[in-house]
Amino acid sequence: MRRNSLSSDISVDNTGPGDAGPAAAARPRIGLALGAGAARGWAHIGVIKRLVAAGIVPDVVAGTSIGALCGGCYVAGKLPQLEEFARGLTRRRVFSLMDFSWRGSGLIAGNRLARLLENELGDTRIESLDTPFICIGTELRTGHEIWLKEGILADAIRASYALPGIFKPVHFNDMWLIDGAVVNPVPVSACRALGARVVIAVNLTTDVFGAGTVIQAPILNHDDNNYEQSLRQPIASETARAAYVRQFFGRPGGSPGITTVLVAAFNITQDRLARSRLAGDPPDITINPRSPEVGLFDFDKADASIRSGWESTERVLADLERSIEVLRQTTPA
Fold first, then answer.
1. Is the pLDDT at 211 greater than 60, yes or no?
2. Rounded to an integer, what distance in angstroms lies between the CA atom of residue 228 and that of residue 162?
3. Where are the alpha helices (DSSP H) in 42-109?
4. Strands 285-287, 198-202: pairing kind
5. CA 149-151-154 angle, 5° bins
6. Counting beta carbons within 10 angstroms of the beta carbon of residue 313, is it exposed (0 to 12), middle (13 to 18) or buried (19 or more)?
7. pLDDT tens digits for range 217-239
C-alpha cells in the first residue's frame, strides 16, 4: 500500500539498492539521475525514500555534486545516516564544518567534510557496490566530463561536489577534478550508458526564476554616505568569526556574501546548461522539487528540502508507474 506522507520510519534499508524483488527481471531497467543544486540537494533524500516506498528501486544511479553525495550514500547503504546528519545541521554547525583556506585554490579546504565521508564510507570502492553507480566530475585542465566508475567512493564524491572557488579541486586518478555540474548538472546520459530504459531525472534548478531570460539592467543607485561608511567600518570591532560570517554569508537585508554570489552565479549557468542537456537527452520522468524558501547555502533547512523531494515524487508516481508498465510489456523476460 502506498504511503502518502513523509514518515521517519520509512527506511531504504527495507529494500536495498539493486534489489527490487522477484518482479525485477520482468520490468525495464530503471536509472536515477540525481542533479546538482547545493543545499536544495537534500531533496534527493526525500525522492529516494518515496520511490523505494512505492517499490520503485533504481537499478543504476548517477549523481552530480550533491546528487553524487546522496546517490553514493544510498548505493552504499548509508542514506539513513546521511538523513540524520542533514536534519541535525544548524547554521552554526554548517559554519563549523567550513575549514577556510586563504592560500589554496578554494575558499574551503574541505578536509572536515572529507573526514565525515571517510568515517561513514571507509574504503568502499565504486566498483564493489551492488548497484552500478557513476559520479560526474570535470577535469580542470581540459574541461572533459569525467565519469567516475572506479576508485574510492568518498574521493569520487568529493571530486563531484568540488564547487569552483568554494572547494579546492580534488586529485583523483592523476586528474584535478572540480564539480561535475560544470559539464553535466543532471546526468541522464550516464544512466543511459549503464543500460537504463527508464530514466528518472531529479532537476533542482527549476526555482531559478527568470534565469533563462534577458532583462535590461536598471539604473543602479545607492546611498553614497552609507556606502562610504560601510567601507570605513573597522572589522577589528567584531570577532574574527563574526567578520567571516558576514563576509561569506552576507547580512540579512544587506549585500550578499562571497559564497552567495559565487554559488548563485554558478547555479544560473548550471540551470542554462541543464536545460540544454535535458533537451538533447530527455529523461522519461523528471522530478522537480520546489523549495523557494531554501537558499543555495541553506544546508540547515534539510527538513523542508527532504519534504519537497518526497512531495514532488508523489506527484509523478502515477506517470512513472504507467511508463514502467508500458515498457514492461516490451521488455524480454
1. no
2. 36
3. 43-53, 66-75, 79-87, 91-96
4. parallel
5. 100
6. buried
7. 344 444 444 433 433 444 344 45
Give yes or no for a contact between 146 and 107, defined as CB atoms under 8 angstroms apart.
no
Which residues participate in catalysis according to the annotation? 65, 179
In the three-class reduction of DSSP (H, G, I as helix; E, B as strand; rest coil), residue 114 is classed as helix
pLDDT digits 0-9 by tens, 142-179: 999 999 999 999 999 999 999 887 888 999 888 999 99
Amino acid at 177: L
Rounded (to 5) percent helix, strand, coil in the chain: 45, 15, 40
Q: Does residue 252 surpass a pLDDT of 70?
A: no
Cα 59 from chain centroid?
19
Region for 55 from its dihedrals, namely left if φ exceeds 0, alpha if ψ lies in -120 to 50, beta otherwise? left
Beta bridge partners of 286: 201
Strand segments (E) across the chain: 30-34, 60-64, 106-108, 133-139, 145-148, 165-167, 170-172, 175-179, 198-202, 285-287
> Is the C-alpha dihedral spanning 51, 297, 152, 114 positive or negative?
negative
Length of the chain: 333
| 173 touches 213 (CB < 8 A) | no
Rounded CA-CA distance 113/159 in Å is 12
333's grid cell: 523476460
